[in-house]
């Protein structure tokens, strides 16, 4: 029996938006990113998750040609990030959303139109107008959230095939966050746009993303289709009978995290075959899996088949 779902088979044979092979970046104080290998299939909406300082911004920087890797390679739709092809197909919304403060909103959009042959004025104006941001206002006079909206419009108007967003929602109120996310989702679904978005808002990611890349300490901890990553785990609850925090009958499996609470033990595991013992088992939520991995840095990484790359292919 095949272990691949139809989606995975399509992902594994289809186009890659991003492929990274042994990607690393070293700053003076040490490695910000180390030996990262993964693949993001085209058309997926991928959440990039990790603790502060994990290397998320650095990773995105390598994909959009703002950071030069110290080791390894990264390819955007098969091309080098610095190539005209990759630049044309990629838009980046940076954490600090740099814009010309003296430009008006209309001038900012005009600049977008003049610099980008595939510019979509309709969507750019729609994003700005739906937030009641006056087209004549200077960017420097806007609130942080309004500036985010303009930066979003500028990036979106380029009609990218790959949209990379670094914590785009951090300064937006919940209503605006929801509105811009639904614009993003609708446009991504209509045009098959690949999205890579970092966020610390796990609940937002759970409702938006169908793909996930988790990094910690500069390394990939988990990568792949969300459903597949979740079903690779079981959340077990049972009576605590032994002495240790990890029950003996779970030793044959990968125990991501185990906690004892009075007479009860709860364990998040990656089962490697049938689980012995009297356990109540359920599929964990995305938040439960993410938090457990972030709390347990020693757990071996989990890379699903569609996110796997062959290191030998890097030289090809
Ligand atoms: N330009 C730089 N010079 C030196 N060190 C840097 C530079 N940029 C990032 N670093 C270091 O690299 C590591 C990863 O930083 P990065 O900004 O990629 O993390 P992050 O996951 O985006 O963090 P956060 O969630 O806090 O935004 C950190 O230790 C950071 O101090």
TrEMBL record:
Gene3D superfamilies from the xrefs? P-loop containing nucleotide triphosphate hydrolases
In terms of Pfam families, this protein maps to: ABC_tran
Stored InterPro entries: AAA+_ATPase, ABC_transporter-like_ATP-bd, ABC_transporter-like_CS, ABC_Transporter_VariousFunc, P-loop_NTPase
Q: Which UniProt keywords apply?
A: ATP-binding, Nucleotide-binding, Transport
Q: Which GO terms describe its molecular function?
A: ATP binding
Q: Which SMART domains match?
A: AAA (SM00382)
Identify this protein by name: ABC transporter ATP-binding protein
- ABC transporter domain location, by residue? 18-242
User: Any stretches that span the bilayer, and where are they?
Assistant: none
Signal sequence interval, chain numbering: none
SUPFAM superfamilies, per the entry: P-loop containing nucleoside triphosphate hydrolases (SSF52540)
Q: What is the lineage of its organism?
A: Bacteria, Bacillati, Actinomycetota, Actinomycetes, Kitasatosporales
């Amino acid at each position: 029996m095949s272990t691949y779902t139809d989606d995975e088979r399509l992902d594994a044979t289809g186009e890659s938006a991003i492929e990274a092979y042994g990607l690393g970046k070293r700053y003076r104080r040490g490695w910000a990113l180390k030996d990262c290998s993964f693949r993001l299939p085209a058309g997926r909406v991928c959440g990039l998750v990790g603790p502060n300082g994990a290397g998320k911004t650095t990773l995105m920087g390598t994909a959009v040609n703002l950071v030069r890797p110290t080791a390894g390679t990264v390819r955007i739709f098969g091309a080098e990030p610095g190539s005209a092809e990759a630049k044309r197909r990629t838009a980046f919304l940076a954490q600090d959303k740099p814009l010309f403060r003296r430009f008006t909103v209309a001038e900012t959009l005009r600049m977008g139109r003049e610099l980008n042959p595939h510019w979509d004025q309709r969507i750019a104006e729609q994003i700005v107008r739906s937030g009641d941001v006056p087209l004549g206002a200077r960017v420097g006079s806007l609130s942080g959230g309004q500036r985010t909206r303009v930066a979003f419009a500028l990036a979106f108007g380029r009609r990218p095939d790959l949209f990379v967003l670094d914590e785009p929602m951090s300064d937006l109120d919940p209503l605006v966050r929801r509105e811009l996310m639904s614009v993003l989702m609708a446009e991504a679904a209509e045009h098959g746009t690949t999205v890579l978005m970092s966020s610390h808002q796990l609940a937002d990611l759970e409702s938006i993303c169908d793909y996930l890349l988790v990094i910690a300490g500069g390394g990939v901890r988990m990568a792949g289709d969300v459903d597949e990553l979740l079903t690779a785990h079981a959340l077990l609850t049972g009576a605590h009978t032994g002495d240790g925090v990890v029950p003996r009958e779970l030793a044959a499996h990968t125990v991501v995290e185990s906690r004892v609470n009075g007479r009860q033990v709860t364990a998040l595991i990656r089962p490697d075959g049938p689980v012995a013992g009297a356990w109540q088992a359920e599929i964990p939520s995305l938040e439960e899996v993410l938090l457990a991995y972030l709390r347990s840095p020693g757990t071996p990484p989990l890379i699903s088949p569609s996110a796997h790359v062959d290191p030998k292919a890097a030289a090809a």
